Inverse folding.
């Protein structure tokens, strides 16, 4: 049921636009405010694409610096955040390319994974699976699970479901079509669900047939 | 409605982008299909769990480095 409602009406100005205006007028503190607002998300996206902490740190820094330098090119017809993410995604892909010695890397590849969209493992979960693990263990499970997805799936899932961008915004940010975003999102959600079931499935009270292999 | 048809609309249902009529059809299917019910509830839980846990903490010191990089760039350019 939870949906993310648009923040502002058509006539209301997004608060970021005012901050951008202040930066353009030479107020560097306003840029610091924008950085603080979005640094976590940008780091997360860079980490999801590059899967490398050093690269993610560099990407975050480069993206914010580049955005600062190109601020005049920000038109204000899209959200500042989606504009920023687009820069970070491009920087991340460039890093990935370097690491893979020049091989083209794109989020636009329609990756076929061995897992399709049809759920196979339909075991229900424990009512409160998070209680079974410590915060650190849980974070490790969530990282391991999402790392198994192709980068294009990870980033669509993160933008749509974690950051709460709309399908249209995600498509615009990643340079993908709306059907491509929808298809990746469905497959990402179902594959994550299936992989998490291995950890969170409801445990039967009686039989313990040794191990979870 | 078949399970495949239900699955095709799963995202729209989760994102609350279905008409009232469509929602009624989906709920009708759910009443008789435990598999789809489990798929829906655990997919919702998957989204919720990723949304509520930060799995990549920003490294300590990164913000400071970024801040000084921006400041030094600014001194040159503004």
């Amino acid at each position: 049921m939870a949906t993310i409602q648009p923040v502002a009406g058509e006539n209301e100005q997004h608060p970021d636009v005012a901050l951008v205006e202040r930066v353009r007028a030479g107020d560097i503190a306003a840029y610091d405010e924008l950085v603080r607002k979005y640094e976590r998300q940008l780091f997360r996206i860079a980490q999801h694409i590059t899967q490398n902490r050093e690269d993610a740190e560099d990407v975050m820094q480069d993206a914010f610096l580049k955005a600062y330098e190109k601020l005049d090119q920000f038109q204000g017809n899209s959200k500042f955040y989606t504009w920023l993410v687009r820069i970070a995604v491009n920087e991340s892909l460039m890093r990935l390319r370097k690491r893979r010695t020049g091989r083209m890397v794109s989020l636009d590849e329609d990756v076929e994974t061995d897992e399709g969209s049809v759920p196979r493992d339909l075991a229900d979960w424990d009512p409160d699976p998070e209680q079974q693990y410590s915060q650190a263990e849980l974070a490790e499970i969530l990282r391991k699970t999402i790392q198994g997805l192709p980068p294009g799936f990870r980033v669509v899932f993160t933008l749509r479901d974690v950051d709460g961008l709309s399908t249209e915004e995600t498509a615009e940010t990643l340079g993908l079509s709306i059907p491509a975003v929808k298809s990746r999102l469905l497959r990402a959600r179902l594959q994550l669900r299936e992989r998490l079931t291995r950890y969170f499935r409801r445990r039967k009270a009686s039989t313990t047939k040794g191990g979870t292999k | 409605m078949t399970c495949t048809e239900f699955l095709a609309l799963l995202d729209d249902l989760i994102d609350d982008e279905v008409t009232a009529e469509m929602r009624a059809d989906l709920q009708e299917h759910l009443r008789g299909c435990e598999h789809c019910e489990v798929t829906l509830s655990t997919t919702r839980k998957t989204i919720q769990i990723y949304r509520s846990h930060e799995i990549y903490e920003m490294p300590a010191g990164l913000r400071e480095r970024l801040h000084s990089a921006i400041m030094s760039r600014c001194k040159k350019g503004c």
